[in-house]
Every structure is written in C-alpha cells, then in structure tokens.
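User: I've been going back and forth on whether these two constructs are worth ordering. Before I decide, could you fold them both?

Assistant: Sure. I'll take them in the order you sent them. The first construct and its structure tokens:
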Amino acid sequence: LVPEMLATDLADYLVRKGVPFRETHHIAGEAVRMAEEKGVPLSALTNEEVCTLHEEFDVKDVDKVWSFEASVETRNAKGGTAKIAVQTQIDELKEWIEA
C-alpha cells in the first residue's frame, strides 16, 4: 500500500477542524512534498513535522490519518467504501435481481 494515497485523509482531517478544503488540499500537497524531499513515505513524517504545516494539526492525533482501514470506513455515503455502505449496495443489488 502506498501511504501517499492517504493525502486526502490528511486534508479531510483539517476539514473536520473547520479549515476550508481549498486550503487543506494545498496543505496536504505540502506534506507530500515534504516527504518527497526527505525521501520517506508520507506516513513516515513525524507528527511534529506535519504540525509545522498548519496550526490545526494536533501532535497528539494527526498520525491516526495513516490508517487505511479508517480511511475506507470514513467513506460511508451511498456508493462509498465503508463496510456498511458496501453491504447496503449488495443488499440493494440482491433486491433488484430478485425483483
């Protein structure tokens, strides 16, 4: 798995703290660039390094964005990747096939 896939989750983290997505997208890009310059995966950045990019990052919990499982589970809207969303899609398809 490629940690850079979670760059959007880094942006979403800030959105949940009230930062507009138009700003968070740019900040997540800065994190990707920082990791590239250091020659490490995005998830290898320390909490302290990430926190230098914006004051809303919290050194206590920003590393939780590096969970692929959590990333999948946050997408629980219709058509999303969360287990409940996928199960709903399966159930609806079964109903459609039976009808």
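The second construct, handled the same way:
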Amino acid sequence: NILKALKNVPENEIAVVGDQIYTDVLGANLMNLKMLYVVPIEKEKTAFFKFKRKMEKPFLPKKFVK
C-alpha cells in the first residue's frame, strides 16, 4: 500500500510500478511519485479490461501500442 510506504519511506525513494494508465499512472502522478510503466504480461480476458486497454492506447508511447 502506497500510503503505508509514504509514512515509513522518504517520498523521493518511492516509485510506483504498474501497467494501467487510469489507475497506476494517474495515481502516482496525483501523489507526485515516480512512475514506471510496464507492458501487461498477458492479454485481458474480460470485456471491461479489454475496453479499458483500448481507451489507454492514445496515452501510451508508440513503442507500447500494438
């Protein structure tokens, strides 16, 4: 949990790692933390996540868009 880490670790030593723009990246940016975006390991199986991935494409660097 990021909030627990913020209590025990200096903010400049925390980085968030994630593969979702609307949760991981946005959350890190809102908390002014370093963010490491990673490519998802496997394809999404549910309609909701497939839709969400399509909505993320315009915000990804071209090298991540297939």
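Notes on the second construct follow. The mean pLDDT is 86. The radius of gyration is 14 Å.
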